[in-house]
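Homework-ish question, so no full write-ups if that breaks the rules, but can someone show me the predicted structure for this set?
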Amino acid sequence: AQRVTQPEKLLSVFKGAPVELKCNYSYSGSPELFWYVQYSRQRLQLLLRHISRESIKGFTADLNKGETSFHLKKPFAQEEDSAMYYCALGGGETSGSRLTFGEGTQLTVNP
Amino acid sequence: GAVVSQHPSWVICKSGTSVKIECRSLDFQATTMFWYRQFPKQSLMLMATSNEGSKATYEQGVEKDKFLINHASLTLSTLTVTSAHPEDSSFYICSASHRDRAETQYFGPGTRLLVL
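A: Not a homework solution, just the prediction itself:
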């Protein structure tokens, strides 16, 4: 069964500090991992995908299959990064694969 | 590009009535659309997956007759909550995946349903 765990519901850091949002997954197949972000009063939007290995808004995430983790990191947090972050796991075998979401982590970046 | 809209953005209805929520992909053809439900301060729970022109696939525990899903075209899917009850009150979110980038879902803004 697919499962995504985000152990921290709330995370608070100061501006300029490094931030890491943890995500662990459980999946027997070949995983596709995503990070979605939801800013206040806005819709959920894709932040990054592990397969593209790109950096968006200074965020990066590396898939660690040995630790079954996909932690989201940013070296210097900004106030505008304050949002709800969801880690999601997709199966990848078929088109339009369903996603399993973690519980989410509310990040607050204090000035 | 890849914009998904939902209508209405919020709705209040009486217990026992049915409510229809529309999900549209505005600038792309969505081969697959997904319907989620989100309770306050909780994650998104997938309710069903619908492919254009075929029956929706419902997740375990989701009543097919309660939550009717229709995906009649590549740009429109509807979710009808039949005989709504107060426990159906929730935030319903749809997403759509593009034919050429099937692994990425684009989300609608959500519909807040309140059943009195």
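Now go work out the reasoning yourself. Hint: Chain B has a mean pLDDT of 91.
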